[in-house]
Amino acid sequence: MRKTLNKPGLIHILNLLLSSPTPVLHRSARSLQTLAYEEFKSSPEKPHNHTAFILHGLLGSARNWRSFSRSLASTLPPSQWRMVMVDLRNHGKSAEIEGFLPPHDLENAAKDLANLVKTERWVWPDVVIGHSLGGKVALQFAQSCANGDYGDSVHFPKQLWVLDSVPGTVSRENSEGEVEKVLQTLQSLPSTIPSRKWLVDHMLKLGFSKSLSEWIGSNLKKSGEEQTWAFDLEGAIQMFNSYRETDYWPLLEHPPKGMEIAIVRAENSDRWDSDVIKQLESLAAKRVDETEGKVSVHVLPNAGHWVHVDNPKGLLEIVAPKVASLA
């Protein structure tokens, strides 16, 4: 399982986070085409009443969110909540599972979540929390639920958390240049890498920072005498393109009845222009119609895009009270 691409100054923090002791996790015996995931319960021996899905960002994985999920579960009513940290298609352990057919877009990534629920015979999640790419997968999941794409038995999430993910389209001019530069560089490399040291040295020669180069090297896995990527790069790039091209403003303008879509904007994030912020604030201030859900907007202070790393305590203070209210 991989970490989300990060700004160089934050890479060492992620490394510290991922080297911390692993919580008690439960892995599923799953069929061929369902997603890999990690499950955390504050009281594993007791039944749970509510479920939250947590979705990582581009080139990330479930393990990026272990620490936050554990903290969230510990603040909620005891033994009532289960956190399911999912590896999206082409990412983490899901990249090793066959059967995820193209197109690799947000619609199919969200459908994978529905297939996981159905295959495991779970109740539908009460809460879906998605960061960056995962935030838009969460929005698509809500949209598909509302469209009836998953059948009549579906129950909408009561809360949808979109963490520092712009809900509209992202033009190439305003796209994340750092992400694109890294993806282009990875595409130019051979499919097998002689060694992690070779990769780090190569990235340094291309002008990337040492911390970022070493983080990219941590995304390698052993393949015989060589190294290869632990994610499906081409599939992930297709998902990134779908992320940029898909618009969920209509969903935010008319959320499904009974659902709250909570947008968390990181105070220091560079992904929000003033027009988008005004549009969100206008939707949040709109009088709620009884036939529709609502939108709320939250600003996470002292944080850039990597919200769960920059200010996990602040993020918890925003998310936990609302999630606890569902119980």
3D architecture notes:
GO terms for molecular function: hydrolase activity. This is Alpha/beta-hydrolase superfamily protein. Pfam families: Abhydrolase_6 (PF12697). It is globular, with a radius of gyration of 19 Å. Helix 2 (66-75) packs across helix 12 (312-325) and helix 3 crosses helix 4 (133-147). It is an alpha/beta fold. Strands 1-3-2-4-5-9-10 form a 7-stranded mixed β-sheet, with helices on both faces. It has a 3-stranded antiparallel β-sheet with strand order 6-8-7. It has a single domain, classed as Rossmann fold. The chain contains 12 helices and 10 strands. Helices cover 39% and strands 16% of the residues.
Task: Produce the secondary structure layout.
Layout: H1 11-18, E1 37-41, E2 50-55, H2 66-75, E3 81-86, H3 106-120, E4 127-131, H4 133-147, E5 159-163, H5 177-188, E6 192-193, H6 196-205, H7 210-217, E7 220-223, E8 226-229, H8 233-245, H9 249-253, E9 260-266, H10 274-285, E10 294-300, H11 307-310, H12 312-325
Parallel strand pairs: 2-3, 2-4, 4-5, 5-9, 9-10
Antiparallel strand pairs: 1-3, 6-8, 7-8
The proportion of residues in beta strands is 15-25%
Q: Architecture, according to CATH?
A: 3-Layer(aba) Sandwich
Q: What composes the largest sheet?
A: 7 strands, mixed
Q: Total number of helical segments?
A: 12
Which sequence of SSEs, written as H and E, runs from N to C? Answer: HEEHEHEHEHEHHEEHHEHEHH
In terms of structural class, how would the helical and strand content be classed?
Answer: alpha/beta
In helices, the fraction of residues equals 25-40%
Q: Strand arrangement, largest sheet?
A: 1-3-2-4-5-9-10
First-to-last CA distance: 31 Å
Please give the domain count: 1
In the CATH hierarchy, the third-tier topology is known as Rossmann fold
